[in-house]
Amino acid sequence: NENRLSIKRAVSNLKIPYLIIHGNNDTSVFLDEARNLYQWNSNSLLEIIEGANHVFGAKHPWEESILPNHLNEAITKTINFLRP
To answer: What pLDDT does residue 1 have?
Structure first.
């Protein structure tokens, strides 16, 4: 079912806007993958966070009292995308 259930096909068929946030220092998922998601559907927005890794500077368990800068940036971009 690879042809029927591919990520490219699913993304291409999305009818709602969607946000892709990716760090350019992500070693788990390459930036080209985010760019593909963006290119496959014109109803998307790609936000690249410079210097951010796969977890936007966070870790588990998080034991700090403030969030990492990259994660704060991702949260801000998400809120701005969701606002009408």
So the answer is: 77
